[in-house]
Amino acid sequence: MGIFNIKKRYKLFLRYKAIANILIKHGLGFVIEKIGIFRIFNIKTKVFRILSTTENPHKMGTLAQRIKSALEELGPTFIKFGQLLSLRPDMLPENLIAELSKLQDEVEPFAFEKVVSIIESEYQRPAGDFFSEITPEPIGSASIAQVHKAILLNGEKVIIKVRRPDIEKTIESDIEILFNFAKMLANRFPEIRLYEPVRMVGEFARHIRREIDFSIEAQNCERFYKNFENDATIHIPKVYQSFTTARLLVLEYMSGVKADRVDELKALGFDLKAIAHNGASAFFKMVLIDGLFHGDPHPGNVFIRYDGTIAFIDFGITGKLTEEHQTRVVNMFLGLMTRDSDKILKNLLVMGVMPDNIDIGLLKYEIDEFIDDYYGRPLKNIELGKVMLQTIKIAVRHKIRVPAEYSLLSKATMEIEAIGRNLDPEFEANKIAGPFIKEITKKLLWPQNFSKFFINFAEDIKEFVTESPRSFNSIIKKVEKGKLAIEFHHIGLEELINKLDSVSSRISVSLIISAIIVASGFIVMTGRGPMVYGIPTLGLIGFVTAGFLGIILIISVFRSGRL
């Protein structure tokens, strides 16, 4: 075990050294000095300064260009990390995002003999038992996998995505190094802690581990396939699950024209307006109806098949939205489209994690100012993705931690809008998103969902009532053991008892109202009995009674003069 650890540490040391050399080569030696990597090598800072200035960094390009070049040379893990950072425009400057978006994930292919060896190792049988032909020349060779065309024994054309040999070992080693870098950055630069670099590396580690497991990508692809199986305008590649493993992904082979090749599409006689509309409709369906969207729909991952259908490919990066997330997105879109700064503010505060010292007034002022900048512009000139991104940037400036899904969504929306505008100069994402927003709004207001909300609310109250005695008991025990000191002042004790009596009465009434709502909700969901406007009469009576009691309770609260 000791020898194994020594070997591992030595390999890590060599990797640190290689990273340092590459950073120096690209004029980024100051990074080594800033985060203190030189301590690992026990080399004086002065030496690194000399090495870092052997060439004029400006001759190598801008800082953003040098970072991009260094990441490419550092290998697959760092390339993927850069690509993931390119999906976080809320955190990085635009010029760096632009460079990171260009990161080339194309490397020298590994030998075809190794491809066959991996296939046979996974299947434990000769490749010829499954494929009548595999094209030796890959159609794509990336840092994590390479892709070959093949033909199944039944004659169906497919592609085989094969994971690179031993790539997982390299990735795990680099993830450990990235974690160490993140800790150094957080310790040395307090201003960077806002972006939580350690948590960010943790998210990346989870993402890349999922990406190299092709069975997960296959599951994502199948979900998209089912979501669009009845849509004649969209085509999702079929997954061959019986041939797919963690190291192999077999998909339907598709050909077509990339969505940004406008002249070629025009020459083929396609209706570009219809393509732009159908592609955006598919995206907003993913976001607002399905809760699962393509996280990187750039033109390389969206192309037009020769039958006119739109194909989405490469589901390595996907975004998932819960019902609550979808509600927030709808409210955010509505706020942006109607220029309602109050709605935008409320959603930012709910969707993010706020610091204790947040200045709500200043945040509101900045949102108002931002909305005013867009006021008066024609709706078609407002890019929904960019506006959403700007609101997230405002939140980040106020140290509100917004979930990564929203940043991914804003970037994906920008990419879809760019494709749409390229195909159709009159393209308006707002008009296409509108019907989906109306649909999900109706869904949220439907009686079943309305009752579901109150059932959840009642469960929260029940949990509060049942857990409170335990919490009080725990506090009392701590007091008895001397672990918690409470100083009592007996002034106004009688008044306190009266107030507690009043509060307990209101809680009792609230529980009764909640019970009526829960019972009515179950009745509504059964859909049985006499109906009024499609709602069971007994359930409707229950809701009306609960509403009446609720109004009485509210009036009593207002009369008491205390909210």
State the end-to-end distance.
65 Å
Helix content: 55-70%
Shape: globular
Task: Give the averaged pLDDT, no decimals.
Answer: 79
Rg from Cα: 29 Å
Strand content: 5-15%
The SS-based structural class is: alpha+beta
> Helix count?
22
Using DSSP, what is the number of strands?
13
List the SSEs and their pairings.
Blueprint lengths: L1 H24 L3 H7 L2 H4 L3 H8 L10 H12 L1 H10 L8 H7 L11 H12 L7 E4 L5 E2 L3 E8 L4 E7 L3 H22 L8 H15 L2 H14 L6 E2 L12 E5 L3 E3 L3 H6 L4 H19 L1 E3 L7 E4 L4 E3 L5 E3 L2 H15 L3 H11 L8 H15 L9 H14 L6 H20 L5 H17 L1 H34 L12 H34 L4 E2 L2 E2 H24 L3
Parallel strand pairs: 5-10
Antiparallel strand pairs: 1-3, 2-3, 3-4, 4-6, 7-9, 8-11, 9-10, 12-13
Helix pairs in contact: 1-2, 1-5, 2-4, 5-6, 5-7, 9-10, 13-18, 13-19, 14-15, 14-19, 15-16, 16-17, 17-18, 20-21, 21-22
